[in-house]
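Exercise 4. Each item below gives a protein and its sequence. For each, produce the structure-token representation.

Item: Deoxyribose-phosphate aldolase (Fodinibius halophilus).
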Amino acid sequence: MKISDFNQTVSIDQVGIEERVARLNSRSIKKESKVQALKLALSMVDLTTLAGMDTPGKVIQLCQKAKEPYAGLPQLPTVAAVCVYPNMVSVAEKALRGTDINIASVATAFPSGMSTLEAKLEETKKVVEDGADEVDMVISRGEFLKGNYSYVYDEIAAVKEACGDAHLKVILETGELQTYENVRKASDIAMHAGADFIKTSTGKVKPAATQPVTLVMLEAIRDYFYDTGRMVGMKPAGGIRKAKQAIQYLVIVKETLGTDWLTPDYFRFGASSLANDLLMQIVKQKTGVYQSADYFSND
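Answer:
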């Protein structure tokens, strides 16, 4: 695809997108399948701490929860990744050493993206050197909204190169993109520039992840796969707090992309608070009663 092709607008049927989401949300899931879905969703969570008050102790506690989500059910899957600020990557790397849990780090002047390309590339290389397996970058929304699509493309491509062997998740910050058409265009640019995942949001802007926006991005992934044969992952992030929501997202993924995407390699949830509700629902399915929320750590 040429850069000039991004000037063309892909028409999105807003009513059709929202009606399809509503239809998929009406699906019912039987108990046995529900337990499998809850465990699958847990394995797809990126446990995240991105607060100004983050400390090494908090990151270590989060890593412990990643390794053992709930001591009462030791057979549970671990989460997919722990996501932290750049200065906490080395702490997470030490705490997760010897596990299969990925270390993700936000970079490129998260969450605003308001920095020079040189600073963004330096930060990207540093987090990878410190042990990050995945880099979550933010696009330059101001340049995108000005129509400077070549700038956005080139920046993503440069960050992808700086990642080396680490995977690149490209955050579109869909709450600032204003229209479904812009979400689709940003998705296409990110994938053609080399993104391994496309991600809705930083979690710092509202609205964050929504199911209609996610469906638009999943359809972009589907069409990109048909054109290129390359599978790109998807990560809705922000505002997903309940297990019921997570299962609805899994249904949307299955119906849009198929079962090949129903794996942590290609689908993630950026929602730490979701983990506790998933755990509560899993325990409920196993025992018939809800555990108190106090039984689960908040980190």
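Check: Residues 3-295 form a domain with the TIM Barrel fold (CATH 3.20.20.70).
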